[in-house]
Design goal:
The chain is mainly α and 116 residues long. Among the domains are: 48 residues; 29 residues. Helices cover 43% and strands 0% of the residues. The protein contains three helices and no strands. The two termini are 41 Å apart.
């Protein structure tokens, strides 16, 4: 099994155990909650930080990093037509239908965001 799945199942089991302690043994509820939070932080650190692969240094040097600092254009593949950016055809503030190219909503007066 994957490590994330195992830790997720253990976290669910720990949550059930903490809820059980909260209802059956309220005297130890504080200890159970703090133990759960501690376990939760440990499991997150093990899953996300210990399993992260190390990045290999680039051999191109600083010139490659400076060249790729701007926005990245999509690479055209032969035989595949590029898809146009998605267009929002409604106002995100009042949900009024908008015709294409409308800069301002006629209903509420908000500017229409341009995500392209």
């Amino acid at each position: 099994m994957q490590r994330r799945l195992v830790f997720s199942l253990v976290n669910i089991g720990m949550a059930v155990a903490v809820l059980t302690v909260l209802f059956l043994f309220p005297r130890y509820a504080g200890y159970a909650v703090y133990a759960f939070f501690g376990w939760f932080l440990v499991s997150l650190s093990v899953v996300w930080f210990a399993g992260a692969p190390a990045r290999a240094p680039t051999s191109a040097g600083p010139a490659a990093g400076a060249a790729s600092a701007g926005p990245v254009a999509p690479v055209a593949r032969p035989g595949v037509a590029p898809t146009p950016p998605a267009r929002i055809d409604f106002c995100i503030y009042c949900a009024a239908d908008l015709p294409a190219g409308t800069p301002r909503c006629r209903s509420c007066g908000h500017n229409v965001p341009n995500f392209a």
